[in-house]
Amino acid sequence: MLNKKIGEPCCDELRHQLLKLLNSKVEIVTKFGPVVGTLIKVKDGYAVLEESDSVFVYVLLPNIQFVTILE
Predict the structure, then answer these.
(1) What number of other Cβ atoms are within 10 A of residue 7's Cβ?
(2) Domain locations in the chain?
(3) How far apart are CA 14 and CA 27, in angstroms?
(4) The pLDDT of residue 17
(5) pTM above 0.70, yes or no
(6) What is the Cβ-side half-sphere exposure of residue 65, based on CA atoms within 13 angstroms?
(7) How many CB atoms lie within 10 A of CB 63?
């Protein structure tokens, strides 16, 4: 399991990489399961995806294990 905290270099790097994927369709896998949608916002501690049914999902950066680009 990854142990990341907001403000640590690993989360800062993750945030930087996610910013490059804004407006892309992605799958984000967390320890709670996968989320698929369009990445619409990346902030200091979280990312926001819009799912196909216009539901917004907030994902805390420390919980992200994998990101896959779907488009």
Answers:
(1) 11
(2) 9-69
(3) 14
(4) 95
(5) yes
(6) 9
(7) 15
